[in-house]
Amino acid sequence: MASSVNPTVRRRRLGQELRRLREIKGMTAEEVAERLLVSQSKISRLENGRRSISQRDVRDLCGVYEVEDQRIVDSLMQMAKDSRQQGWWHAFGDIPYSVYIGLETDAESLRTYEPQIITGLLQTRPYAEALIQGALPETSVADVEKRVQVRIRRQERISAEHNPLRLWVVLDEACLRRVVGGRQVMREQLEHVAEMSQLPHITVQVLPYDVGAHPGINGQYSILEFADTADSSVVYIEGVTSDLYLEKAPDVQKYTVMYEHLRAQALNVEQSRQRIEDVAKEYAR
């Protein structure tokens, strides 16, 4: 599923390179904005890869940074062109978390902590339908179906025959106990999680209630890592109206340490699978 031309990843790489050129020149984002008669926020958005970068933007920035090597300019211009192509998710229309999907599509590994629900990559269709309907009660049937289709399509990353996404999930026990879609849906959902957890590239751990307070108490987050060393790791925190992406090394390190503590406090893999299977049986009664 990872595309050789992933627009989201291309924007990130291009933004990182433009930031590097600015820093080599010793200029601030504010100074660059003044030279180009644009807002400082535009320069920041271009550098963090959150918006498309036109070839004209690249040309203007290379001029400000006095890049003399035409090969570098041509390479950056091509990256800008690639970054404006559409990923598979654009076929589904306006997806609020399209930036995240682009990152997930290209990621080599994903570590996620879920305090309330089964993580999207492991959801069954009935569970996903019930979850989206419950979380977004004013959403039309058509939009619910579109979101479900996107979620199912994303799961191709963990079922790929070659180079599947390495997934590590820590689920709070509340994820197993919160009845989404009814008892039958929950039984099938938990059986699916238990089955998927037996794949060599998928690890699932359960954080039991009796752990008490823990480092993930403030909520859900994910850490995405990439095969290309040019792509820095990203911490993703999902929001209601907007999402947060953290890429600075100290931030990523802090969340990584938190995740290590969560893994240490959770049940081990075998105990977790047994807990999931036991709760699934409870829903069958």
Automatic annotation (TrEMBL):
Q: Which Pfam families match?
A: DUF5753 (PF19054), HTH_31 (PF13560)
Q: Which SUPFAM superfamilies does this entry report, sorted A to Z? A: lambda repressor-like DNA-binding domains
PROSITE patterns with a match to the protein in the record: HTH_CROC1 (PS50943)
Quote the SMART domains the UniProt record gives.
Answer: HTH_XRE
Domain HTH cro/C1-type: from-to ranges: 18-72
Q: What is this protein called?
A: Helix-turn-helix transcriptional regulator
State the InterPro entries in the record. Answer: Cro/C1-type_HTH, DUF5753, Lambda_DNA-bd_dom_sf
This protein's species is: Streptomyces violaceorubidus
